[in-house]
Amino acid sequence: MNIKNYINGKFVDPIDDEWIDNFCPGNGEIYGKIPNSSKKDINKAYQAAKKAFPAWSQTTLEQRSRLLIKISELLEDNLQQFAEAESLDNGKPIWLAKAVDIPRAASNFRFFANAITQFASESHESVGQDAINYTLRQPIGVVGCISPWNLPLYLFSWKIAPALAAGNCVVAKPSEVTPMTAFLLAELCMEAGLPKGVLNIVHGLGSTTGQAIVAHPDIKAISFTGGTATGAHIAKIAAPMFKKLSLELGGKNPNIIFADCDYDEMLTTTVRSSFANQGQICLCGSRIFVEASIYEKFKTDFVKKVKQLKVGHPSDPKTKVGALVSKPHLEKVLDYIRIGKEEKGEVLCGGKQVKVKGYEKGYYLKPTVIEVPTDDCRVNQEEIFGPVVTIMPFDTEDEVLKMANKVEYGLSATLWTNDLKRTMRMSKQIQAGIVWVNTWMMRDLRTPFGGVKNSGVGREGGLEALRFFTEAKNVCIKY
Ligand code: NDP
C-alpha cells in the first residue's frame, strides 16, 4: 500500500515525486512506497500550520478537548485495522499492538484532552508593593514532532496530542520504517473534523525530511524521541536557533534482582522486561544483575523460560517474539552477539536467526541471553535495542549500584526487593529518570517521563508535556 503526506488537511504526493520502499519485517518483502519528502514539503507543511495557528490557538479548551477525544474514540473504533497495520509495518505481534500500542495511543489523546482542561497557571501577589503577577501559558506556534519506529503510534501520539491540546500546530514525521499508522491517523483526524493545517504529517528519511523540520528557522520547538547520536546531532542544529528541545533518547537499563524479592513474579516480569516488543523498547531491562546467592537458580530458570518463548510471524496469536524491525537492525543486533562472544561472554540461549516457515525472508532472531564476565564489556555498555540481555551476579548493594550507574545512559531502572530501606536508598542513588520497584513499565500518564545523562533532556508526560509545548509569560500589574 502506498501512502501520502498529509498537509493542509489533504493527502498529497511529495513535491519532487520521490518515493522510498516500505519493507514488511515479517516476510522481508516490499509492500508499499512512502514519500521521500524534501525541504520543500516541510516548508509547505510549515506554511499550512502557520496559517492554521491563529484560529487553532484561539479555540476554547473545550473545543480542542472534544476534538482530541473524538480522535481517541475513532482509534478505539478502528482498533483491529490499526493493530494489523502496526504489526505488519513493525513486526510486533498483533496481540501486542492490539492490547498495548493502539489502546495507549487512544489513551494519549484522551489523557491530554482532559489534562488541558485542568492546566492551571500561577499567580503571585507582590505583597507590600501593590502588584500582582500572573503567568500566561501560551502556545509556541508551529512545533515539530519526530518519533521512532519501535512504538510507532504510541510515541507519535504521545507528542502530537499534548502539542495540539496546548494550542500549537504541528509538523510531524514518523520513522520512515514504520509510517503506516501515522498515515491512517490522518484519516481519522479528517473524520474527527480537525481543521486543515493544524496537524501535518510528512513522511521521509530522517537525514533529509527529519532534519528539514529541525533546521526550519520558524519551527520553534522540537520534540524528538530516538537514538542518542541522532539527538546530539539535532541539538547541534537547533542550538544556534535557540529552539526549545525535548530529547527522549536511548537507554541501557539495569534490572537489579535481590534474593529477598518475590521470585516468581520477578521471573515472569523479567522475561517480559527483557523481550517485550523483541527487546525494542527504550525501557527494556537489558542488563540483569542478580544477587550471588540466587544467581545459579535464576540463570537456570530464566534461560528455561526464555527458550520457551515462541518466535513467529507477527500475525500468529501464539507468537511471543515477532520480527525485528528491519534487515539493517537485525544485522546490528547479530553483530553485537558476535562482539559479546569475542568479549568472552557465554551465549546461554538464542544467538541465532530463526527461519519462520513460510516467511523465510523475515527478520527473526532467537531471544538471547549472554552471561558476561565483566560489566564493562561493550554488550553491557552499549544500547543493542533487540532481544538480547546480559546477566551477571553481584555481591553487595554498593557493588551493583556502581555497575548500574557505570553507563552513559540513565533512562530507567528496575529493582526487585522487599526491603523498604534498601528501596529508598537505591532509588535515590540510581542515575535514571524512572525507577520501577517490583514491577516494570507500569505507566501513569500523569508522571514525568524522561532520562538523565545521555538518555535525554527534558521530561514528557502529564503537565510536563503541556509545559514544554507552551511558553510561560509573566504579567506584572501594579494596582
Ligand atoms: P533514530 O534516532 O534513528 O530515529 C528517530 C527518528 O528521528 C526517526 O523518525 C528518524 O527518521 C528521525 N531522524 C533520523 N535522523 C534524523 C536527523 N538527522 N534529523 C531529524 N530526524 C532524524 O532512532 P530509531 O528510530 O532507530 O529508534 C530507536 C532509538 O530510539 C533507540 O535508541 C531507543 O532507545 C530510542 N527510544 C527512546 C525512547 C525514550 O523515550 N527515551 C523511546 C523509544 C525509543 P527515520 O527513521 O526515517 O530515519
Topology:
Blueprint: E1 5-7, E2 10-12, E3 19-24, E4 29-35, H1 39-57, H2 61-77, H3 79-90, H4 94-117, E5 123-126, E6 131-139, E7 142-146, H5 152-165, E8 169-173, H6 180-192, E9 199-201, H7 206-215, E10 221-225, H8 228-238, E11 244-248, E12 254-257, H9 263-275, E13 287-291, H10 292-308, H11 327-342, E14 346-349, E15 368-371, H12 378-381, E16 388-394, H13 397-405, E17 409-410, E18 412-416, H14 420-429, E19 434-437, E20 452-453, E21 456-457, H15 462-468, E22 470-478
Parallel strand pairs: 7-8, 7-10, 8-9, 10-11, 12-13, 12-18, 13-16, 15-16, 18-19
Antiparallel strand pairs: 1-2, 3-4, 5-6, 6-22, 11-21, 14-15, 17-20
Helix pairs in contact: 1-7, 2-4, 2-6, 3-4, 4-5, 9-10
The structure holds NADPH dihydro-nicotinamide-adenine-dinucleotide phosphate.
NADPH dihydro-nicotinamide-adenine-dinucleotide phosphate binds near residues 176, 233, 282 and 411.
Describe this structure in words.
This protein has about 475 residues and is of the alpha/beta class. The protein folds into two domains: about 5-250 and about 455-479, 3-Layer(aba) Sandwich (Aldehyde Dehydrogenase, Chain A, domain 1), CATH 3.40.605; about 255-445, Aldehyde Dehydrogenase, Chain A, domain 2 (3-Layer(aba) Sandwich), CATH 3.40.309.10. The chain has 15 helices and 22 strands. The protein has helices spanning about 40-55, 60-75, 80-90, 95-115, 150-165, 180-190, 205-215, 230-240, 265-275, 290-310, 325-340, 380, 395-405, 420-430, 460-470, and strands at about 5, 10, 20-25, 30-35, 125, 130-140, 140-145, 170-175, 200, 220-225, 245-250, 255, 285-290, 345-350, 370, 390-395, 410, 410-415, 435, 450-455, 455, 470-479. A seven-stranded mixed β-sheet has the order 14-15-16-13-12-18-19, sandwiched between helices. Strands 9-8-7-10-11-21 form a six-stranded mixed β-sheet, with helices on both faces. A three-stranded antiparallel β-sheet has the order 5-6-22. NADPH dihydro-nicotinamide-adenine-dinucleotide phosphate (NDP) binds near residues 146, 207, 227 and 234.
